[in-house]
């Protein structure tokens, strides 16, 4: 009488382990991809949040029409030491109170921050330039964006139109 086989053979166990390993590797790759996507989206949303805050703060200040209110703001270099490493940021700052409002860009030590504003030749609008993101040379995650836009002082336009013949 032949003995009946009980359990699995060695080949069946090895095939099952190989299939299990492939499934676990696939799940791990899916998790890693999702995590990297989350980090990229988070970094982009932080850039967008900083840009929206800075642009709306500056735009509202200019549009209120107070004389030279834009000169109350500037982009300053800010140094921070964390775990013995110095990090450099371009920060939108309220000059009068020496109060930082929002971090705009992380930069290399010798990189200058851009000039915030220049008055256009029409005397009613300003061109604003904001550097946003991680602008260090070794960083390539979400990159660095230089955003330039024009903001017009509504009160000056209205007063110029009233003076026109």
Question: Whole-Å distance between the termini?
Answer: 119 Å
Overall geometric form: elongated
Tally the beta strands.
Answer: 6
Largest sheet: 6 strands, mixed
Rg on CA atoms, Å: 28 Å
> Please, how many helices?
2
Task: Report the helical percentage.
Answer: 25-40%
Number of domains: 1
Helix-strand string: HEEEEEEH
Q: Name the poorly predicted regions.
A: none
Q: Beta-sheet strand percentage? A: 25-35%
Structural class: alpha+beta
Q: How would you describe this structure in keywords?
A:
N_methyl_site, alpha+beta, 39% helix, Prepilin-type N-terminal cleavage/methylation domain-containing protein, transmembrane, 2 helices, six-stranded mixed β-sheet, membrane
Ordered list of secondary-structure elements with their pairings:
Blueprint: H1 10-63, E1 73-82, E2 85-94, E3 99-107, E4 117-119, E5 125-134, E6 144-152, H2 154-163
Parallel strand pairs: 3-5
Antiparallel strand pairs: 1-2, 2-3, 4-5, 5-6
Give a nutshell description of this structure.
The chain is of the alpha+beta class and 165 residues long.
Characterise this structure.
It is a single chain. The protein has 165 residues and is α+β, with helices and mostly antiparallel strands. It has one domain (10-163). Helix content is 39%, strand content 31%. It is built from two helices and six strands; from the N terminus they run H-E-E-E-E-E-E-H. The protein has helices at 10-63, 154-163, and strands at residues 73-82, 85-94, 99-107, 117-119, 125-134, 144-152. Strands 1, 2, 3, 4, 5 and 6 form a six-stranded mixed sheet that branches. The protein is elongated, with a radius of gyration of 28 Å. The model has no long low-confidence stretch (mean pLDDT 82). The chain crosses the membrane at residues 7-32. InterPro entries: N_methyl_site. It comes from Vreelandella glaciei.
């Amino acid at each position: 009488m032949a003995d009946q086989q009980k359990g699995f053979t060695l080949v069946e166990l090895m095939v099952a382990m190989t299939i299990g390993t492939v499934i676990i590797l696939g799940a791990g790759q899916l998790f890693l991809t999702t995590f990297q996507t989350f980090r990229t989206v988070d970094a982009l949303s932080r850039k967008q949040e900083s840009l929206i805050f800075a642009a709306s703060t500056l735009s509202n200040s200019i549009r209120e029409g107070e004389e030279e209110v834009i000169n109350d703001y500037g982009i300053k270099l800010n140094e921070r030491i964390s775990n013995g490493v110095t990090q450099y940021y371009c920060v939108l700052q309220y000059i009068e109170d020496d109060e930082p409002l929002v971090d705009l860009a992380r930069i290399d030590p010798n990189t200058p921050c851009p000039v915030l504003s220049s008055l256009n030749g029409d005397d009613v609008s300003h061109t604003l330039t904001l550097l946003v993101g991680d602008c260090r040379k070794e960083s390539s995650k979400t990159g660095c964006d230089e955003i330039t836009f024009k903001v017009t002082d509504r009160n000056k336009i209205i007063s110029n139109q009233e003076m026109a013949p």
